[in-house]
Amino acid sequence: MGGCFSKPKPVELKIEVVLPEKERGKEELSASGKSSPRAYQGNGTARHFHAEERLPAPHPYPGTQDCVEAAVCHVKDLENGQMREVELGWGKVLLVKDNGEFHALGHKCPHYGAPLVKGVLSRGRVRCPWHGACFNISTGDLEDFPGLDSLHKFQVKIEKEKVYIRASKQALQLQRRTKMMAKCISPSAGHSGSTNVLIVGAGAAGLVCAETLRQEGFSDRIVLCTLDRHLPYDRPKLSKSLDAQPEQLALRPKEFFRAYGIEVLTEAQVITVDVRNKKVVFKDGFKLEYSKLLLAPGSSPKTLSCKGKEVENVFTIRTPEDANRIVRLARGRNAVVVGAGFLGMEVAAYLTEKAHSVSVVELEETPFRKFLGERVGRALMKMFENNHVKFYMQTEVLELRAQEGKLKEVVLKSSKVIRADVCVVGIGAVPATGFLRQSGVTLDSRGFIPVNKMMQTNVPGVFAAGDAVTFPLAWRNNRKVNIPHWQMAHAQGRVAAQNMLAQEAEMSTVPYLWTAMFGKSLRYAGYGEGFDDVIIQGGLEELKFVAFYTKGDEVTAVASMNYDPIVSKVAEVLASGRTIRKREVETGDMSWITGKGS
Where is the Rieske domain (predicted)? Predict the structure, then answer.
């Protein structure tokens, strides 16, 4: 596939893609049907686009001086189902042997740079050990999330029992490949009051929807609108590194949106949606008509309703500005975090190095109790206490007291009084769907948007994705659930885009999430809500463990620390459709799951 060898395969077509300066790389179109003409509805008229029409003319092979080629091992060095990281002059390559065939790919996950050799190889794909993204070993394409980019695929040949890899130096250094995308050829861009696709919300779901449409050859107008003042950014990082600046968090550079004609309206609040006339109205009076709509508004953080809630220096975290302000105010001062869920605990962990004191207030008796159970919660709580975090459990805030308008003390219902210069509230969130109340789009009693497996709402042509939806979870008997994970939002945005193009895609992703505190990561896969037992292997005290969450005789979720790639392995088993029985994990014999093969 690398296009560097002298003998071309007849079915391959080499195309140079114009990518933003930073991401410039090369990608091939194989005869998998991606380069065949496709028809899309564009403002009511079917248009055909050929690969050649939307991209510069095919350019057969790059200059050989850009390439590096070397023998990396003997054919017998790798067993089937084995992966190895090999050196190739300018960088490393992941070499995979599967069903007797060798494949060579980029070795780092484009999401956060995890070494894929430590991941899980199964069913023709490799799954990242850190956050569960999956890549097809034959193409390098991203098949499951998080992250936006794919891997480079390098050419392999076998000569005299030796395995040779040939790759472009640029691809070796880049370690990521942006899938080929169509450009916008719609003349109305930037002026008219109508768009083909309107996406409300520019988190992971909104961005992946827009990118997927372009990857699938859609070349009409796409407008992405957001309440934020920034282009789409990595929101999960906000609570893990509160100092991060917006430009460090950006998921794509400004040039990317320009290059592919994805228009982003920032600080744009939709106040009404009229599904009968396919029109939305913004707060400033601007009206926009659409033919397809994605609702991905995310959620709004819950706030305290106690006495003194309006005093200064009490925050929820929604934007980089919120996070940066909290760190500034907490330096050398007293910080109080309300809520011992993921967001609250990540913030507390981050502030321990910065603040004079950090206290956590929580209604439950242990942190993460509903999600991770009593024992895991207690082990994590001990880690925090060892880092001088003080806990006030089974109580809540009664009053926030101020001095000259600024927070001075937090008074608890247990009558304790905590000194506080800054307070961070992480007590959950509600779907940000108030603007849909009169729209005709169905909302459930809690304000979530119910969708089917194709992410369609009750209104034809209107899709929804991300934290604000409930959807049927395929591998849990289509139970309607809300899963506000970053990775799920990516997957739902993709499925919504595919169905806007009538591809009949369905949600099948296994939920995967992670948290990072004091330099340690906890990973989690599955859907454990309502678990009735937790089976723990390894040592909780030394935080090297795996916890299996069960309901009846079935394993529904898994969490681990310092036990990679077990969570990715379980995610892969669940994704394959296999049920894991409680008795399989009770014995402590994990060979069935930790074995290298699939």
Answer: 70-165
Between CA 452 and CA 498 the distance in angstroms is 14
Query: Does 589 lie in the same domain as 527?
Result: yes
**What does the buried/exposed string (b/e) look like for 263-286 if buried means 16 or more CB atoms within 10 Å of the residue's CB?**
bbbeebebeebebeebbbeeeeee
Q: What residues contact residue 489 under an 8 Å CB cut-off, 6+ apart?
A: 203, 204, 205, 208, 296, 465, 466, 467
Beta strands 222-225; 194-200: pairing state = parallel
Q: Give 169-217 as a DSSP string.
A: HHHHHH--BPPP------TTTTT-SEEEEEEE--SHHHHHHHHHHHHTT
The reply to whether 438 and 417 lie within a common domain is no
Q: Which two tokens stand for residue 492?
A: 């739902």
Domain span at residue 265 reads 197-300+432-501
Per-residue pLDDT tens over the stretch 462-518: 999 999 999 999 888 899 999 999 999 999 999 999 999 999 999 999 999 999 999
| Model-wide pTM > 0.90 | no
Distance of alpha carbon 294 from alpha carbon 206, whole angstroms? 7
Query: What would the pLDDT profile of 114-138 be if each residue is shown by its tens digit?
Result: 999 999 999 999 999 999 999 999 9
Count how many domains the chain has.
4
Cβ-based neighbour number of residue 422 at 10 Å:
24
In a domain, 102, yes or no: yes
- For 586, the token pair is 């009770």
**What's the pLDDT at 115?**
97
pLDDT tens, residue by residue, 392-408: 999 999 999 999 999 99
Is residue 515 helix, strand or coil? Answer: strand
Give the other-Cβ count within 10 Å of 332's Cβ. Answer: 9
